[in-house]
């Protein structure tokens, strides 16, 4: 993974925090989004911790570029404030989630692991606000000439996959989905992977965003 932040002390702090974890390997650092793209071309990254506000190229623009060029790389945003406007744009750009810079060490490490395991580290209350806004935008688009026909541009989801998608919308982990539906963890994981593939996205956060935009699910 790589750390991208224009403040050297912030990068050093995160490096010290994460380098002691045996399952986390930091292979590079960058001070802006343009440098982050260079790291992506040099290393086989699985995750980038990306600051939102940076010179040259900010985290939102960089995230969009990373996901377009390297969709297999997950991006988790680093932010000082849980501003829903920034985070909404980050999710639209393809970010898998976010973590506050001043969060406790254990929370940041857990967020990193959750993204690498295909989960979405989003505060439930803030995530609900973001999803409500996305749903409202989708309704406005459909009310001004858009339609649900867009939803059929993707491979249809099965009833069970729509059920799983509804739980993903609530922020459930694969293990929680398995418990809710009384299925095995492996089966839950397979359903999530099929949903992501059918929607043509790279992670579960984007799958929920895409489903809301297409009108496949709502917030009720």
Describe what this molecule looks like in 3D.
55% of the residues lie in helices and 10% in strands. With 220 residues, the chain is an alpha/beta fold. The chain folds into two domains: 121 residues, Rossmann fold (3-Layer(aba) Sandwich); 89 residues, Rossmann fold. Helix 2 packs parallel to helix 3 and helix 7 crosses helix 10. The longest helix has 20 residues. It is globular, with a radius of gyration of 17 Å. The protein starts with a strand and ends in a 6-residue tail after the last helix.
Write a brief caption for the model.
With 220 residues, the protein is an alpha/beta fold.
Annotated CATH homologous superfamily of the largest domain: Response regulator
The strand order across the widest sheet is 2-1-3-4-5
Per CATH, what is the topology of the largest domain? Rossmann fold
Taken together, the total number of domains comes to: 2
What are the segments in which pLDDT stays under 50 over at least 5 consecutive residues? 146-152
Q: Number of helical runs?
A: 10
Q: Write the H/E string, N to C.
A: EHEHEHEHEHHHHHH
Note the main sheet.
5 strands, parallel
Radius of gyration, in Å, reads 17 Å
Provide the residue-averaged pLDDT: 84
Sheet-strand content, in percent, reads 5-15%
Named at the architecture level, the CATH assignment of the largest domain is 3-Layer(aba) Sandwich
Proportion of residues in helical segments: 40-55%
């Amino acid at each position: 993974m790589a750390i991208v932040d224009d403040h050297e002390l912030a990068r050093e702090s995160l490096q010290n925090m994460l380098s002691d974890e045996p399952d986390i390997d930091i292979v590079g650092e960058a001070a802006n989004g343009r440098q982050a793209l260079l790291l992506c071309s040099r290393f086989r990254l699985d995750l980038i911790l990306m600051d939102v506000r940076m010179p040259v190229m900010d985290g939102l623009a960089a995230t969009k570029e990373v996901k377009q060029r390297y969709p297999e790389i997950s991006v988790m945003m680093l932010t000082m404030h849980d501003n829903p406007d920034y985070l909404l744009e980050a999710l639209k750009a393809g970010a898998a989630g976010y973590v506050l810079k001043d969060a406790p060490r254990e929370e940041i490490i857990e967020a990193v692991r959750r993204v690498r395991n295909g989960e979405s580290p989003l505060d439930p209350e803030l995530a609900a606000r973001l999803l409500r806004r996305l749903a409202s935008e989708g309704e406005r688009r459909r009310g001004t000439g858009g339609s649900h026909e867009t939803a059929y541009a993707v491979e249809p989801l099965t009833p069970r996959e729509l059920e799983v998608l509804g739980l993903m919308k609530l922020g459930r982990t694969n293990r929680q989905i398995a418990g809710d539906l009384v299925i095995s963890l492996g089966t839950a994981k397979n359903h999530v992977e099929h949903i992501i593939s059918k929607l043509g996205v790279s992670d579960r956060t984007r799958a929920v965003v895409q489903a809301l935009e297409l009108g496949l699910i709502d917030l009720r």
